[in-house]
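Summary for the lay section of the report: proteins are chains of building blocks that fold into shapes. Here we show the chain for TetR family transcriptional regulator and then a coded description of the shape we predicted for it.
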Amino acid sequence: MTSTAPAPSAARTVGTRDRALTAARTSILEIGATRTTMVEVARRSGVGRTTLYRHWPDATALFADLLTRELTEVMEGMEGMEGMAVTEFTARVDPALPGSAPRDADDLVRLLCTFADEVRTNPLLDAFRRHESAMLSEYVFHRLGTSQRHLIEVLRALLSQVITSDPRLAGRDADRTAAMLFLAVQGLVLSAPLADPPLDPDGWRTELHLLIRGYLGL
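The coded shape description reads as follows.
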């Protein structure tokens, strides 16, 4: 029988990275991103500074990986269109949402709005938005990161299934629609605090729902 367990060295590497990322997250939430230096992460995680620098050249690179991990953890709830991981996510954030793949465009809109709202209210993203806007702008204006590409792919998979099952979306291109939805929702999530008021959290959710429905022609 062939073991599927990771090699000890690989497991140690993953464990080291996770410890450092978790320590960085805690530090950012406690003392802010500006004061979360590589020295501080090393102290909190127990990972030596030399080891830390083997994984990340600086704090900005570490923060980028931390943001990817954070968004991936939220996204994992949306995945499972081929499996069933969406069940846990939808039950946790909104019991009224479907516990499996969206059955139609209405289900998809509700799922996407709930996901966007969870990202909008994520405390780590809020800290980055307030203190690391330069890092975030890299992924808004210059390139797509790993988690962004992953999210677009998740949306594409969702849309492909819903386009097949819901005649209201007949003729839609899943790739283009997923990319456009992602760009629109990303901008709205990152800029949400700028429009409060008049868009308080309830108003933001309501208007986002209307915007996505309008774009999809529902």
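Put simply, here is one thing we learned. The radius of gyration is 19 Å.
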